[in-house]
Design a protein that fits this description.
- The structure is a single chain.
- The protein is of the alpha+beta class and about 170 residues long.
- Among the domains are: about 40-125, Winged helix-like DNA-binding domain superfamily/Winged helix DNA-binding domain (Arc Repressor Mutant, subunit A, Orthogonal Bundle), CATH 1.10.10; about 140-168.
- The chain is built from 7 helices and 6 strands; from the N terminus they run E-E-E-H-H-E-H-H-E-E-H-H-H.
- It has helices at about 25-45, 55-65, 70-75, 80-95, 115-135, 140-160, 160-165; strands at about 1-5, 10, 15, 65-70, 95-100, 110-115.
- The strands form 2 sheets. The protein has a 3-stranded antiparallel beta sheet with strand order 1-2-3, with no helix packed on it.
- Helix 2 (about 55-65) packs across helix 3.
């Protein structure tokens, strides 16, 4: 429960200062920035290989893990498991990923990048990394580190118990 009084906000009985910054505007800019980066990399690199941003992220995460359970792949890619299913179906049809039965639990499925998927990643990773560097190239190292830390803190906060309780 949120209640406001002069100069403070109470959230579930805990006292919090009223935000000084424009929280809503900041979240809009965060959303716009994420979409701008995604669109830029898709248009500069991925569309030439008929690959979506989400497909690329899943492929890259599976590649970095070598072999990964679907639930963990969804978490690492930052997408819902239901979304992962459609993305994986597309990548499997294109022979970029393969599904493997889990050796210890028949209910689980592992993902692995195929030889064709590895070739595709080796082909596009340099261009993708160059565009990722371009997107933040106007920031100095300290600013990039600061942005990284802030984004990580936001994700950790939203993955926490308090945030989970608010969504339940």
């Amino acid at each position: 429960m949120v209640t406001k009084t002069s100069g403070e906000t109470r959230v579930n009985g805990r006292r919090r200062a009223i935000p000084r910054a424009d929280v809503g505007g900041t979240l809009v800019e965060l959303h716009r920035a994420a979409n701008a980066v995604r669109h830029h990399v898709e248009q500069a690199v991925l569309r030439h290989k008929n690959l979506s941003w989400t497909g690329f992220v899943v492929l890259r995460e599976v590649y970095s893990a070598e072999r990964i359970e679907t639930r963990e792949a969804a978490i690492r890619a930052g997408i819902a498991k239901a979304t992962l299913t459609g993305v994986v179906n597309t990548l499997v049809r294109r022979n970029l990923l393969r599904r493997i039965q889990h050796p210890d639990d028949g209910r689980l499925v592992l993902l692995e990048v195929t030889a064709r998927g590895k070739r595709l990643l080796r082909d596009i990773l340099p261009a993708s990394q160059a565009e990722e560097i371009f997107t933040l190239g106007h920031l100095d190292d300290a600013q990039i580190t600061h942005v990284h830390e802030l984004m990580r803190k936001l994700v950790v906060h939203l993955d926490g118990d308090e945030a989970h309780d608010r969504r339940s």
